[in-house]
Each structure stands twice: as C-alpha cells, then as structure tokens.
Amino acid sequence: MPSIRSSQVVVPGGVRPATVRFEQGVVVAVGEGPADVDFGDLAVLPGLVDSHVHVNEPGRTEWEGFATATRAAAAGGTTTIVDMPLNSRPPTVDLASLAVKREAAAPQAAVDIAFWAGVIPGSESWVGALVDEGVCGFKVFLVDSGVPEYPPVATQDLGTVVDDLGGLPLLVHAEDPRELRAPQGDPRVYRTYLASRPGVAEARAIDEMAELARSSGRNVHILHAGGGEAAAAIGRARSTAPLTAETCPHYLTFAAADISDGATAYKCAPPIRHEEDREALWEALADGVIDMVVSDHSPAPPEVKDLGGGDFLAAWGGIASLELRLVATWHGARERGHGLDRVAGWLAEAPARLSGLDRRKGSIEVGRDADFVIFDPEGTTLVDNSTLVQRHPLTPYHGMALAGRVVATYLRGRLIYGEAADETRHGELLRRGPG
Predict the structure, then answer these.
(1) Which DSSP category does 323 fall into?
(2) What is the pLDDT of residues 88-126, one digit of tens each?
C-alpha cells in the first residue's frame, strides 16, 4: 500500500505530522508510522481545486488549450480545474456544446476537469438537461463579457433561471452596467480604465444578487470580488442570504499604484483597485466573508493584450496565473499571519465544495482522492515568463520573488509534476456529485 509522510500534513482541523496511505488512487488511512516516501519538513497539502479557469478550447485554442492549461495546473499544485463556459466557441450553453467541450478535453487532461455551463439569452431551456449531465453550476454576466457569443442576462430575468438550477449555484460576474462609465482620458494610463469600472458597480450588482439569493433561497456565487466596496456588500448579505464569494490572487497582490502606463498585462475586469481595497479583501477572507481564492485564469496572445500599443481600453481583460495561484496567495497570506491550513481551505476545500466535488476533492481524509501538492513554504519561486507552462508566457507576476515553491503534485497517487513525474495524461472528466 503506497504511502507518504511529512511533519506538516494539512488535514481537516489543522497541520500535523502524519503518514497518508492510499490504494487505487484513494486515501485509506491518515495516521502514524513509516512511509514509502518521507518528505520531512516539506508540507503536504490537498491537491488544489481551481473553480475559475478559462481554457478557451475549442474555438480559441490559440489563446489557451486543455493540453497547456492542465500542465500549468499540475505545475502549480492544482489537481482539478473547473472550466468556464466561455471563451470557447461554441460556449457551453447546451448539450451539444458540452459534448464538444468534453471531447476536446478528454485526451489532453493532465489533471481532472469538471465543467460549468452558462446561461445566455435564449439558452434557458437547456438548464435542466445540463443539470442532468453533471455540470457544476451556471455562469451569467450582467455586463458585456467581451466576446459576442456570450451576451449578458438582464437581472430581472434571473428569477426564473434559478428555479431550474436543481440546487446548483448560479455564478455571477457582478458589475452593474448602469454604473459603468465612458472612459475619459489617455487610454495608456491605467487610471483611465480604472475610473470606467468603479467599485460601486460591483457593490450595486452584489446587492441585487443578494436579494435574488434571499428571495429564491438559491446559492448565488459572486465571482472575482475586486475591492473593498464588493467585500462590504458581500458582508452585508452573508447573514441573510445564501451567498458565497471568491477573489483572485491578482486582487490580493497588486494595487493600482503598481501599474505603469501601458502595462496592459495587469488589465482584468473588475479592475485591480487600490491598496486599501486589497487589504479589505484580505480582511474579508480572514473573516469568512469571502470563501475562496481562484485564479480566473484568462489568457490571451500578446497581440490581444496589446502589449505593443499599451492601450488599456483595447487590450483583452484577463490575467493568466493558473500555475502561480498557490505561491501568490501564500506570499500574501504568510505576511498577514495566515497558516497553510487557511490557504488550503481557500484554494482546495472551498472551491471543491462550491463545485460539488467535495466527496472526492479538497481535503486529505479517508475516502478522498489521493491528490496532494508537496510544498516548500520556506522556499521561493522566481517568476520568469520564459519558464511558464501556459500557452502564452505572459503574466504581471514576471520578475517577482514569491514565497513558497511547489515541489511535486500527485493525482490519485500518481506523481504528475516533479522529479521523475509520469508524463502520461491521467486526468479524468468529472461530474458534480449529489446535492
């Protein structure tokens, strides 16, 4: 029976020395005793779950594809991704597009993959069938998504949608279009873009989504909360509405003052805001107001990011950080006194629960998949675009020295990243579990 051991194993309830035994890819015991592989003081965390990844295949595979995205996930300690219904063409909004997506993903999966579906105007009739097909939930935009094949849904139309979700979460890109502003000023200056998407746009949309959650009794999940006004709106709602929320490493790491003119690698939506917004998000995580940290991995070719022109208004709004999520989050978490158990909760347990995959994923305990990330919390990751595994070596983290280092990643007991890793693609396509 294979086994691994460490003085720092993150298990439910904390971090302790333990030997983890597994058989046929499933954990069968967590206890004491010698092991086949002893990692010493390196930490063993549950394999991470990233519930917000834009793979873009099929249709925009030149932006990112399952082969490169899942290899990047493994390099960052992520053993399960949940793919977003856009920016692939066709978007995953009906049974045919889901079948095409699964067919593309299956032979290329280096890690396990589950799928969100989407709701756009005219696709509402497919919700029930997609629920039956095991999607993890449904995503909607309240504002322009940036791609023409995925238009927004009006807030007043969501009441009928949530009734058909069968208990699955409704994921919302929460910005109120009425609060967006026409850009004024030099498009190469970051504050021109920032001013066009103020924090009140997030807050007003979150208030409306909280009311939807409250009146329907359905779980509404707020995607990529970007600042203090969003965090405050989520906090107001949590005691009375079944609302959950996420943020991303870029909102926890950067601030508007860090972004130089023309530095379009930083562009995302909602935008990176100010230092006080960053600290408000950390406080919301610490207090349980925000549940998780996901990558919102949204890559694009350099020309689409307008790296040459540096026009924030013309550039694609997305940040690629799938393989950096753990070290970027740990970098900030350690500075603020948070331990590995909190980080594992934000990066593994909570995303698995949201996605309905927590019977198999998100924690190291008997009956769960033997998915592990071996992590050196005292190490350092020097981010260099040229070493990134993702399709396009472009990230705003380039040149940073981030705390921690991923040493190895195991998927159902197989070493898929690290020295002497098995290069065979062992990923599976997952369906949401009961409830």
Answers:
(1) G
(2) 999 999 999 999 999 999 999 999 999 999 999 999 999
CA distances to 15, 84, 85, 164 from 129, in Å: 42, 18, 15, 10
Query: What is the token pair recorded at 34?
Result: 């010698």
Over residues 35-83, the pLDDT tens digits come to: 999 999 999 999 999 999 999 999 999 999 999 999 999 999 999 999 9
Q: Which two tokens stand for residue 252?
A: 């926890």
SS3 category, 2: coil
* The residue to which tokens 């709004």 are assigned: 317
Q: Which residue has the tokens 């550039």?
A: 315
Closest CA to 81 of 281, 286, 325: 325
Distance CA(99)–CA(105), nearest Å, equals: 10
Element (H, E) at 78: strand 78-83
Q: How many CA atoms lie within 13 A of 232 on its CB side?
A: 12
Strands (E), 174-277: 220-222, 243-247
- How far apart CA 226 and CA 243 sit, in angstroms, is 16
| First-to-final CA distance of the chain | 32
Asked if 233 and 221 count as a contact pair (C-beta separation under 8 A), the reply is no
The conformation of residue 54, written as its DSSP 8-state character, comes to -
Closest residue by Cα to residue 342 from 14, 6, 8, 80: 14
